[in-house]
Structure formats: structure tokens, C-alpha cells
Amino acid sequence: MKLAETVSGSSMLQIGDQFDHYQIRSHIARGGMSDIYRAYDLLSGKQVALKIPNATMIGDPAQYERFQRELEVMKTLNHPAIQKGLDSGTYNNTPYLVTELVDGESMRSLIERAAPMPPGDAVRLIRKIADGLAHCHDHGIVHRDLKPENILITSDGQPVILDFGLALTKGARRVTYANLSSAAGTPDYMAPEQIEGHRGDQRTDIYAVGTMLYELLEGHPPFSGDNNFAVLAQHMQGAVPRIDREQTGVSPQLAAFVVKCLQRNPDERFQDMHELLHAFDHLEVMDISALDRGTGPVTAVPFWRASTAKAIGSAVLLLVFLVFLALLLQTFHK
Ligand SMILES: Nc1ncnc2c1ncn2[C@@H]1O[C@H](COP(=O)(O)OP(=O)(O)O)[C@@H](O)[C@H]1O
Ligand SMILES: [Mg+2]
Question: pTM of the predicted model, to two decimals?
Fold first, then answer.
């Protein structure tokens, strides 16, 4: 069968269509790159999630490899917090990926509904996510696109991490802002090293964990701005914003934990997920001295003001130096 063109111009499968050996039951969601359908596998008799490229991606020849790689990554892993991959292939020139159906609410909708959350609930959820990520990292896989849209939470509170489309394995392509902006839409969870064009490592996922924990506790992501560039600038230059501990009942230790995840320099974050998990389980001994050092509300100083201040500072120094020199010469002449 051919993909139907809807009024909006997007390529959509219709309910009841058969796509390879999958029968479409409903449209679940539209991601940054794909449409996800609930489908019935005529071979296994199971309900599955079928992912096909959306209209913007449909002609992209890299999509097939991307889905294949995504499946490969999922098959390497086996953890309750990681989505399970089942199949990938091409049907009528359309690449597809099949994963286990997750019956749950997206973390984005949880945030909209329930954040700011009681700190205990936020910690419990993020801990399970971090546990799944430790499993990924132990297998040499860095997710690199963690955000609330890519996490589903089942009714018994189990988070499931999805979308390993940008995951880094050996030899994977670099994530740049250019391909993230079209693919992922938001730079809210991007680590500074990704913004600078580096591939990132497990500490890049640690940064994203910090942004998501911050958002669960505060109800909004740590860095914000009128547009993507303003948000990127905040990630690069803004002070790590202070968690409003009085209002949300967050302990100084938990606030310090978040600050440590959100350090701009990866060397100053937790160095791996096991270190992070250990700190999570021993929050009472978390070093809180960082809270009074580099933190505070984001006060964006326009760069021209910062550079003007620097210029004035240098001019004053030069003047002092010249006066000093003149006085010295005068003394010699006497
Ligand atoms: N296995 C699944 N079960 C249920 N819903 C899913 C499943 N996989 C994805 N989704 C839904 O589809 C959305 C997009 O999926 P995702 O894999 O992130 O696609 P993209 O790569 O296009 O961002 C998710 O945010 C989620 O709401
Ligand atoms: Mg996604």
C-alpha cells in the first residue's frame, strides 16, 4: 500500500491499513522525526509500536540505517527502564522500526500535570532513569537525546527511555546543533559540550539528568530564553540557577546534587552514572559548599555590556600604570 497524503501534507497511515505484516490500530504520537502507531503484528499476534519517518524525513536515505542502528542499540540492552526493540526493515521504500508497546504517560505530560513535584517523587523517578542509563553506559552506549519527550512512565511508575536515534556507539555520527534543531526541536536539555559540537560522553547524559530533575522540582527547565539561541547562550554562560528551596522543600543536599549535574565543565560533574547513583543514595553526605559558590539566579549580562566593562577595566589599569611610570621617571630625573 501507499502512504496517504493528509491535508497537512504529512504522510500518514490510516487505521486498518496493513503495513508489511503490521495492521495499524491507531496513531500514538508524532516525534521529532517520526510517526508512531499502535499496530497489531499479524505474525506474532502482539500489539506493538511501529515507527516510520514523518513527512520531513521520509525521503532521507539515512533513515533506514538510523532505524537499524536504533534497533541494534536496543537489542544490546536489557533493562526495565530501556525500550525493547523488536524489528526493523523497509516496506514500499519506507523504513520502519518496531518496538514493544509501552502503555504509559510521557514525562512531558507528567511535568505539565504534576511539576513542581514533591522532591521524594522526583528523586524516585530520576533514580530509576539513572539506573537505566548506568546500564546503557556499562554497554558503551550514550543516549545523548534525553528529554521528557523521550521518556514514558507506566502506571506503576516505571520510566522507559525511548528514542536511541542519536545514541552514541563506536563510529556514530556527531550531533550538531544543526541536526538537533531540526530533529529534536529543543535545546533545553543540551549539554554545553554538545552545543560546542563535541560528541559528548556519559557526562553529557548526566547533564540531561540534571536538567530533567531540575524541571521536575521547579516546573520549568533550568535555562530559558525567548528563542533557541537565547537558551543555548544560557547553557554556555548563565549561572546555574538556584532551586527555590523554600518554596519546593528541596534539601540543600538535593539542590547541590542538581548543581553538580549541571556544571558546564564535564570534569566538574559526576564522572559516571554509578558515581551519580551512589551520591543519590547517600544524599545526606552530599557536599553543599557548591551551593554558595557558582550558583544564583540567571542574570544574563548582554555580551556588549560585559565587553564594555572589560574595556573600561583595562583602560583604567593602563592609566594607573602610565601615571606610575611618569612618577618613577620624575623621581629619576631629580
Ligand atoms: N514503544 C512505544 N510505546 C508507546 N509510545 C511510544 C513508543 N515509542 C514512542 N512512543 C511515543 O512516540 C513519541 C515519539 O517517539 P520517538 O521514538 O521519540 O520518535 P522520534 O525519534 O521521532 O523523536 C514518544 O514521545 C512517545 O510519546
Ligand atoms: Mg523523540
Answer: 0.82
